[in-house]
From TrEMBL:
<keyword id="KW-0472">Membrane</keyword>
<feature type="domain" description="Nucleoside transporter/FeoB GTPase Gate">
    <location>
        <begin position="42"/>
        <end position="155"/>
    </location>
</feature>
<feature type="transmembrane region" description="Helical">
    <location>
        <begin position="165"/>
        <end position="186"/>
    </location>
</feature>
<protein>
    <submittedName>
        <fullName>Spore maturation protein A</fullName>
    </submittedName>
</protein>
<feature type="transmembrane region" description="Helical">
    <location>
        <begin position="133"/>
        <end position="153"/>
    </location>
</feature>
<dbReference type="Pfam" id="PF07670">
    <property type="entry name" value="Gate"/>
</dbReference>
<feature type="transmembrane region" description="Helical">
    <location>
        <begin position="6"/>
        <end position="25"/>
    </location>
</feature>
<feature type="transmembrane region" description="Helical">
    <location>
        <begin position="37"/>
        <end position="58"/>
    </location>
</feature>
<keyword id="KW-1133">Transmembrane helix</keyword>
<keyword id="KW-0812">Transmembrane</keyword>
<dbReference type="InterPro" id="IPR011642">
    <property type="entry name" value="Gate_dom"/>
</dbReference>
Length: 191
């Protein structure tokens, strides 16, 4: 559905530009924006490679294991049924650690592995368990200590101080994660 909306907006804009005699401006804008998109994408690929490499170093050096030791007691409280299954907990910790470091692209494969492992032990296949719902909420609203993706985008876009968003990001993601867990607890009683 959203594809139709965007297509409609794009076509209406182009047609309106041509009708008002600004076809040249529209075509120049299209060419300029595609060139800027390619440049931004190349810059982001480099920055994402850097941060994914940092995450790999953190994994190999044991930093992620230290974080997992810190997270494990908390996970036992949040994920009552799944926290005892190492097949579920290992990718879950890597997903949450990647999200905490702001590496959402690196977190995605671990999130998929976690959900697949949870589905294996799910007695009602195709229906999300409470732990699955909690993980999805926590994955979407994970506390980010270093929002590297946003910092990378701001740096690639020419921001003078791309790291200024660290404190606001910690606060907003913490509030979102806490509220998400509260809402999950409330909704579990009714569904």
């Amino acid at each position: 559905m959203i594809n139709y909306v965007w297509f409609f907006i794009l076509i209406v804009g182009i047609v309106f530009g041509i009708i008002t005699g600004r076809g040249e401006i529209v075509s120049k804008s299209i060419i300029d924006s595609t060139a800027a998109t390619v440049e931004l994408t190349i810059q982001l690929i480099g920055l994402m490679c850097l941060w994914c490499g940092v995450m790999r170093i953190a994994e190999k050096s044991g930093i992620t294991n230290m974080l997992s030791k810190i997270l494990r007691p908390l996970l036992k409280i949040i994920f009552r049924k799944s926290s005892n299954n190492p097949e579920i907990v290992a990718p879950m910790i890597m997903n949450l650690t990647s999200n905490i470091m702001g590496l959402s692209n690196a977190a995605t494969p671990f999130g998929i592995k976690t959900m697949e492992a949870m589905e294996k032990v799910n007695t009602n296949k195709g229906v999300a368990t409470n732990d699955m719902a909690r993980f999805l909420v926590l994955n979407a609203a994970c506390i980010q200590l270093v929002p590297t993706s946003v910092i990378s985008i701001r740096a690639a876009s020419g921001s003078q101080n791309p790291g200024i968003i660290i404190i606001p990001a910690i606060i907003t993601t913490a509030v979102a994660a806490i509220m998400g867990m509260i809402y999950c607890s409330i909704l579990e009683r009714y569904f």
